[in-house]
Each structure stands twice: as structure tokens, then as C-alpha cells.
Amino acid sequence: MKQFLKFLPILLLYFVAAGRGYAQLQGQPLIDSLLKELPKQKEDTNKVKLLNDMAFEYLEINPDEAIKYGQQCLYQASKLDWKKGIGMANNCIGMSYLNKSDYAKSLEYFQKALNVFEEIENKSWIANVTSNMGIVYRNQSEYAKALDCYFKALKADEERGNKDGIVNVTVNIGNVYLLQNDYSKALEYYFKALKMVEEIGDKNEIIGVTASIGGAYSQEKNYTMAIEYMQQSLKLADETGNKYAIVVNSSNIGEIYTNQKNYTKAIEYFESALKVAEEMGRKSLVANLLGNIGELYLSIIGDTTSKATEKRTTVTGIDELSVSKHHPNASLPVGNAALLHEAFDHLQRGLAMAKEIKDPNSIMDIYEGLAKAYKLSGDYKKALEATDNYQAIKDSVFSKDNNEKILKMGMKNEYDRQRLTDSLKNSEKEKITALQLQRQRGYTAMGIAGILLLVGFSFFIVRERGKSEKERKKSDGLLLNILPGEVADELKANGTTTAKHYDNVTVIFTDFVNFTSAGARMSPQALIDELHTCFKIFDEITGKYGIEKIKTIGDAYLAVAGLPRDDPKHAENVIRAAIEINAFMQDRLAKLGSSTFEIRIGIHSGSVVAGIVGVKKFAYDIWGDTVNTAARMEQNSEAGKINISATTYELVKDKFTCEYRGEIDAKGKGMLKMYYVS
After folding, report:
1. How confident is the model at residue 648 (pLDDT cuts 50, 70, 90)?
2. What average pLDDT does this structure show over 257-263?
């Protein structure tokens, strides 16, 4: 299910707009009123303002219409050579593209607006536009740039004594810290903002800041405090008739109850949010909520299935459902079948609306939910189609080309240009190093393969004539126990193998804590037997997720996902395997105590070179900084914990619950950001 933070930035964006003096969105009735006034307007600045208001009214309802009226506003302002109007129009168009998640275009227009307002030295609008640029960078996870923009906006607002602006920027600064899991810093800025808005007495601002505080507590998993502040925000929103805030708070409370598996309460709050969003005519919110509710029903099915027994069972907050153990292809039990029907209904309605308003993020999220739903129903053909649609949109939205455009658009000063130059230079150096290493490993591997043939390893080559089928199968099995299938096939077909460079892999290292002292407590045979039992289970788990075991080094276990075949879910699969490995060891520790071991796990994602090394007892191995960093992640983990790097975190943060540990000094690597995952 999509996290509540996907709602929170929308709420903050709304309050930023409202705090800058824009008309609060009121839907189609206000648009109709403005359309009647438009033909009556003369070709003057009043018409520019009216067109700008029209564009803002369409921001959430229909971003494409907002862009159309924004362009008309820009054209009219340019005819009059009214600088402020030109800046306003560019800002509004930028916000429209922001709502479409077209960050490159958004930054392009925000930068044009900023250039104009800096030229006419309008600090109010400088603060406004830089704050909006901060939202773009925040949404791209470029947190340092986002903070630069927000602090620039804060300075401009402080210079002109704009309390409303100071509040909004302060909240957004807190939000950036929250996105980095720095809860204490986030709450520090939120409470600063709350103190100011209570002094000002602006109830809408109090609603927004209180909701933000609730959001921070929710991320911290302090659900009691989270619900307390969100309920305060919701109550005030009810009193003031702030429907947008009602939707956001109800959705976020629903998310918390979902995390607590109180599904009746979760559905109650989500449906309440949906009803208000539909009353408002806010199609983007409606599509988002329909997708969330659909995934909520899938979560209920998953929870009931995981807790299924031969008898009836109960899940917190849900009436008894008829559930049983069943094969994925079998028909679902009656209770779950009804839930699946609800999931399909909400997801399909959400998809239709998301397509209507051309919202790529909602379309992408809903296709992901539909893929799960079709899989549960046993319709694997449609599940595959939904997955393909999800991946196609994801590739489009997050393509490398688009990211490059965004970077170029954002780099308007010398500092950023130099930073880009340095980045490109480093990238070239990395490519050259990788190529040299690949070439070196290739020569080594080819030499090894030749030696292997000379010293009698020709029995591995299936092309060898005169072997019986039984003998070939036996040698094949032995070979596949040493090498990955593709590498074994290459060796059999060509008599040689070459080292290969893989850009996107995830490496997992496990190690047993205090293994030496454990060995002192156990007999040699008991020690070996326990290691064998544990590693056998590790092999089964990694095999299930398509992860390639590389080797064991004493009591350490090394494996990698993403080679020799590409795996777009390499990081996700390794995390899932790590969770299962850790759960197995915790269960075994509870049963056997000192007769087994405590485990420590480390994970990092990046690039590696892989190939065959050695002549005697030759082995398939991997090299590179990624392997070293994964080892550092393991060394800096704790017993019973899974420690991941910042690189891996960025790949899985939407899939798993992660706890930021801060920057930790890793031997030979310096300060590295680390996260515990569960």
C-alpha cells in the first residue's frame, strides 16, 4: 500500500499555495464563475490575473487545463510586458507540471519565474518560487538541493516579515528531514511552526502543521501520538469545513490502522476520505484513494491467508472469514473471494479515473495492485499484463533520460555545473576501471579455462564423445554445483569462460556472532553439523529467490542477486531472503539456545565483476567495491539485525520498513549511511 507520505506532500503543497495568497481551490462551481467573467475582461493586467486564477483552479482537477490557461496567461502578460504577470504565469505552469510529475518541465518554468522575480527584486515571489522548486527536488529525493531552496525561501520571508511564508517553509524543511528519517529534526521544525501558527491564529495552518506532526510520529511508529495529532487536525478541519485536510487526515489515520491490522477502522477512515474527495471533485485524490483501498483489501487477504488454518480464524477488526490453506491456483475461500471482489472494484475504478486525468504515478501504482489481485485470482495471464503495464509506465516516469533532463534543468549556477562536471569525470573513471578489471579477469579466466582443459577437466565438456547419458548427467550436476547455469553452459559450449561486469546487483553477507566462543562450547562434529544445517537452509532460501550463492568462508555466507541473469528486483529479492534467513535463525536460537548461533546480516547494491578463479578446486567468484561495502554492512550490523546501505535503501524503501541509523564509520570506507530493515 502507498505510504501516507504520498499524501503529506500534497497537503503541504496546498498550504504553500494558500499561504502565498492564492485562491483556495473550490472546484467546478468557481471555474464556471470565472469562465463567465473571462469574456468581459479587457486586455489588461486584470485579465492576466483572471487567467492565472483559472489555471490555479484547474491545478488538481485537470493539470492539462491548468497548463492551457497558464500559457494563455503567459501570452497575455508577455503582450503587456508585465514582468510580475510573466513570473506568475511561469510559476503556475511549473506547478501544473509538478502535479503531472513532469519534474523537468516543472523546474524549467520555475526557473523562468525565478529569473523574472529576481530581476524585479520581488522577495515575496522569490520565496514562493524557490519553495516550489524545493518541492520538486524533495520529490526527486535530492534533499540537499531541496533544503537549499527552502532555506533561501525562509531567508526571503524573514527579510520581509512574512509570518505565513515562514511557517510554510519551516514545515517543508521539517518534511525534508522526515523523508530522511531524521525524526527529531523533523519534529523540531514542526513544533517551531506550530508555535508560530498558534500565535497567528490561522486555523488552516494549524490543521496542516498538526497533521505534519502526526505524520512524523507515524513514521517513527509512535502510533498513539500520531493518531492524537491527526485527530486534532481532523477535528479542526471538520469545524472549518476544510475538506482537503479531512481527506488527508482520514487517509493517514486509515494507514496507521492498516499498519496495526485494525482493518475495520482502516476501511472506515479510507472510505470516509474517499466520500469527501468525491464530493470535492478532486479526481487525482479519488484515484489515489481508490488504489489505496484496493490494496488494503489485498493486504487483508494476505494477512488472513498467512494466518490460515484448517479451522476458522479471526483477524483484528474483521468479522470471521472462512479461510483455509490453499494452492495459489485454487479458488479462494468465500470470505477472501468477497474481499478480492472489493479489491478489483476499487482498483479498476481507480485505474479508469487515473487514466482519465492522465496521472502516471497513480496508474503505475494501481497496475501494481492489479497484478497482485490477478495473481491471487489465478489469472496469471492478466497478472503478467498488469505487471508489464506497471513496468512500462515506471520505466517512462523514471527513465534515465528524464533524470538527466531534470539535472540539466536544475543546474543553473556555477556550483551545480562544476558538480555535474565532476560527476561525469568520476563516471568516466569508473567505466575505465570497470573495463580494465573486466579485461583483466577475462584474460585470467581464459587462461584458467585453458589450463583446466590441459590438466584433465575435459570431463566437464558435454561435447566430449563416448560418454553415457548417465555419466553426462553426473558431470553436469557436478558442474552446476560449482558454477551458475549460464557460466557452465558457456564452458561446455566454448571450452572457455570470460569474466563479466554486472552493473545492477545486490550482495548479501551473513556472519555468525561470536562463532569462536560457540565453537568452544560445541564438539567439532556438532559445530560442523550445525553449520551444515544452517547453510543448507540458506541455500534453499536464496535459491527460492533466484539468488546465486558464491561461497562460504568459515562461518560467513556470501551470495548475490542480479547475475548471471539480470533481475530488476535484485535488491527486493535479497531483502526478502535476508528476512527469511534471519527469521529461521531467530526461531532456531529460541529452540536450541547455545547449541546454535546468532546471525548478523549486511547488504549493499552496486556493480561487480564475476568469473572463474583458480586451477585447483576452481571457483566462481565476485569482485569489486560492492562486495567490500556489503562486508562492511555486515560488520557494522548487530545480532538478529539486517543492515543495508543507502544505495540499497533507495531501491527498497517503498517495499520495506527501514530504520535510519545515521552515518557510521566503516573501516576503510569512511562515514556511510546505514539502515536496519524489517
Report:
1. very high
2. 88
- Gap between the Cα atoms of 199 and 210, Å rounded: 14
pLDDT at 40: 62
**Model confidence band, residue 221 (pLDDT cutoffs 50, 70, 90):** confident
The answer to whether 105 and 136 are in contact (CB under 8 A) is no
End-to-end CA distance of the chain: give it in Å, rounded: 16
Question: Above 80 in pLDDT, residue 324?
Answer: no
- pLDDT band for position 513 (cuts 50, 70, 90): confident
Cell numbers 533524470: residue: 403
DSSP per-residue string spanning 236-277:
HHHHHT-HHHHHHHHHHHHHHHHHTT-HHHHHHHHHHHHHHH
Instruction: Please tell me the distance from the alpha carbon of residue 342 to that of residue 350, in angstroms, as a whole number.
Output: 12
Indicate the residue type of 311. K
Query: Rounded to the nearest 5 degrees, what angle is found at the Cα of 183, between the Cα atoms of 652 and 284?
Result: 60
- Is 536 exposed, middle or buried (CB count within 10 Å of its CB: 0-12, 13-18, 19+)? exposed
| Distance (Å, whole) CA 280 – CA 289 | 13
Inter-residue long-range contacts of 476-479, CB under 8 Å, 24+ positions, other chains counted: none
Q: Which of 63-77, 186-200, 243-257, 657-671 has the lowest mean pLDDT?
A: 657-671
Lowest mean pLDDT among 51-65, 409-423, 459-473, 638-652: 409-423
* Cα–Cα nearest to 378, from 329, 333, 337: 329
How many CB atoms lie under 10 A from the CB of residue 419? 13
Higher pLDDT, 321 or 125: 125
Q: How many CB atoms lie within 10 A of CB 382?
A: 15
517-552 confidence digits (pLDDT tens): 666 667 777 888 888 889 989 988 998 888 988 888
Q: Does 564 sit behind a cis peptide bond, omega within 30 degrees of 0 on the bond before it?
A: yes
Query: Among 603, 537, 536, which Cα is nearest to 574's?
Result: 603
Integer Cα distance of 656 and 677 in angstroms:
7
Beta-bridged to residue 549, according to DSSP, are 559
CA angle, corner 59, sides to 53 and 64, nearest 5?
Answer: 105
Secondary structure letter of residue 60 according to DSSP: T
Kindly tell me the burial class for residue 91, based on how many C-beta atoms sit within 10 Å of its own C-beta (0-12, 13-18, 19 or more).
Answer: buried
Parallel/antiparallel/unpaired status of strands 642-645 and 598-613: parallel
Q: 653 — phi, psi (to 5°)?
A: -60, -25
Cross-strand pairs, 598: 513
CATH numbers and ranges of domains, the chain? 41-120 (1.25.40.10), 413-496 (no CATH), 499-677 (3.30.70.1230)
Tell me the residue ranges of DSSP E strands in 442-499.
none
Answer for the pair 620, 614: CB distance below 8 angstroms, yes or no.
no
* Consecutive H or E run containing 608: strand 598-613
Which helix (H) or strand (E) segment is 553 a member of?
strand 548-553
Q: Which residues contact 23 (CB under 8 A, 6 or more apart)?
A: 30, 53, 56, 57
Beta strand 670-677 pairing with 642-645? antiparallel
> Mean pLDDT throughout 612-640?
79
Q: Which residues of 66-89 are buried (b: 16+ CB within 10 A; e: fewer)?
A: bbbbbbbbbebbeeeebebbbbbb
3-class secondary-structure state, position 497: coil
Q: How far is CA 664 from CA 368, 389, 575, 639, in A?
A: 35, 40, 21, 17
What was the pLDDT predicted at 28? 54
Read off the pLDDT band of 38 (50, 70, 90): low
